[in-house]
Specification:
The chain is built from 14 helices and 11 strands. It has about 400 residues and is of the alpha/beta class. The termini are far apart.
Amino acid sequence: MLKEYIDRTYRTDRRPPVESNLIKDNTAIVGVGQTEYTRNSGRDELDMACEAIKNAVEDAGLTMADIDGLEAFTLERTSMPVLVSSLGIPNLRFSSRISFGGGASCANVMHAAAAVATGVANYVVCYRSLNEASGHRYGRGDGYATYLSEAPTLHYGYYFPFGLLTPLSWASMYGRRWMHEFDIDPAQLGWYSVVLRENANRNPKAIFHDKPITHQDYLESQMIVEPLRLLDCCVDTDGAAAVIVTSAERAKDLRQTPAYILAAAQAATPESEIQTSYNRTPMSGLPDTWYVGQELYRVAGVGPSDIDVAQLYDPFSLGALLQMEELGFCERGEAAAFCEGGDRIRVGGEIPINTSGGLLSEAYIHGYNLIVEAVRQIRGTSTSQVDDVELSMVTAGPGLPTSGMILRK
């Protein structure tokens, strides 16, 4: 029965593939911008959004008059009309917002690219701004009741009353199942965090730039929700990041080396919830991520071994490890062993991961900082630069309807 369900869940023949893809090679990310990443910004999210977008416009060599599209999360707390007025955008031709929290980061860029490829807009800004550290916090005060009222689905009502109030508690459920099914050594989990902190130590913009850790530090760190320790967890952050998407033709004349969008994909599977998909089988897998990966490889005409560097959405270490399995960088149940010692995921290894420090050690901007780093790898400007990068992958949130991209030089 289990095998039959898995075979039914992980199938690419359930619908015929889209025959034409106007995004592929016809669109590019041409500008990136960010604010300082801090634990207490001392300003509102509108102010930070404006700074990140202005920095992206300057990076691309554009003016605000060129911008005619905005793309954001449904969770974004800035008002789009107020943002347009604050920035002085003369005419917004296109705007949209996407649900699913962190699963929307790459989807935002995909929708922007679709608008550009179909002639709806010329230059679309995708942005995320949040005071995650000094503002909203999961599980604090009336936070769970407030979040339940804002949630895109009603399933949290079945979990919050029993104490499952945070993403870490949700993830721990399927994390424990994964470790049980494959007899994972808990000590192996720590190497992922160690390597990401090494990358952050080379990145002066990372929150943990000046705070190295060892594997022993990981083992001695506080257990938050078994099996996740403090050093398995992302860093709550105040800040904003933005990217600009335009056509491949326009990109040729702009200031920066374009990061061409070779493939972009979204996926939402049956019985998928927002990180609490406990009623589908396998509970220890991420079918949405698998479907995104299959579509990316199909459209791009490449496979896992062709990817030079990957930025995997890691609100907790387990999220990235399970994505490594679903995306084909290692076999199912082998991600922890694959990361042991760290060399295979370091710069120069088989698949360098989260070279800016990721969400664990650079910042948590709902995955937008991962997109910025994926672009830097294409440009050759990362603080942990991988040699001769041709293909740079980036993914959105695991354990929910999600998205991803492959960028090419």
